[in-house]
Amino acid sequence: MANIDLINSRILSVLERDARISNIDLASKVGLSASACLRRVQELERSGIIKGYRAVINREALGGSITIFVTVGLSGQRTEHAKDFERAMDAAPHVTECHNITGSVEYLLRVEVQDLATYKEFHANILGGLSQVGSITSHICLGSSKDVRSLV
Questions:
Q1: Which helix (H) or strand (E) holds 138?
Q2: What is the pLDDT of residue 152?
Q3: Residue 82 in contact with residue 62, Cβ under 8 Å?
Q4: Which of 119, 67, 73, 66 has the alpha carbon at shortest distance from 92?
Q5: Interatomic CA distance for residues 123 and 9, integer angstroms
Q6: How would you list the strands of the sheet with 95-100, edge to edge?
Q7: 113: Cβ contacts below 8 Å, ≥ 6 apart
Q8: 67 and 135 share one domain
Q9: What confidence tens digit (pLDDT) does each residue in 75-84 have?
Q10: How far is residue 106's CA from residue 102's CA, in Å, rounded to a whole number?
Q11: Average pLDDT of 110-131?
Q12: Domain of 89: which CATH number?
């Protein structure tokens, strides 16, 4: 595991906000030479602290998007139920996040769809069609005052 000292912490903070920053600019922001900065970033990658880099898509720019947070309670507590549910969510293109959580339900989903008709179809035909699903509660997102995924 990489040492998370103050400099590595700064590197991670800058990369979370702008993963496309050049190594030279990153080095300048954290007070290192370019070669020392590159070595640290590579070590953070090798150790698995930096898992990868990705593009954050503005779905509204693609023609509109509705984000819905969905809590799902399973009908049973068997491991197979959870695995089957997770496989189904992996295959569902509208599900952008699937989190196993504690509390009164087992899962929290982030679902992104073009319109409510698309969500209704997902709700009825995907979630509603899974025998292991015992309860579904939908929360339509009206806005996000903080979303670190969209700071690009």
A1: strand 133-140
A2: 47
A3: no
A4: 119
A5: 41
A6: 95-100, 107-113, 66-74, 133-140
A7: 65, 66, 68, 94, 119, 122
A8: yes
A9: 988 999 999 9
A10: 6
A11: 95
A12: 3.30.70.920
Q: How far is CA 45 from CA 37, 42, 51, 68, 104, in A?
A: 12, 5, 7, 32, 36
The length of the chain is 152
Residue-averaged pLDDT of the chain = 92
User: Is 122 inside a domain boundary?
Assistant: yes
Q: Residue 94 in contact with residue 124, Cβ under 8 Å?
A: no
In a domain, 105, yes or no: yes
**Residue 150 in tokens:** 């969209």
CB-based contact 137:127 (threshold 8 Å): no
Range of the domain at 35: 6-46
Nearest in space to 42 (alpha carbons), one of 32, 105, 122, 113: 32
The model's pLDDT over 53-77, given as tens digits with 9 standing for 90+, comes to 988 777 777 776 899 999 999 998 8
Where does the pLDDT of residue 133 fall: very low under 50, low under 70, confident under 90, or very high at 90 and above?
Answer: very high
Phi, psi dihedral angles at 21 (to 5 degrees): -60, 140
Q: How far apart are CA 63 and CA 118, in angstroms?
A: 14
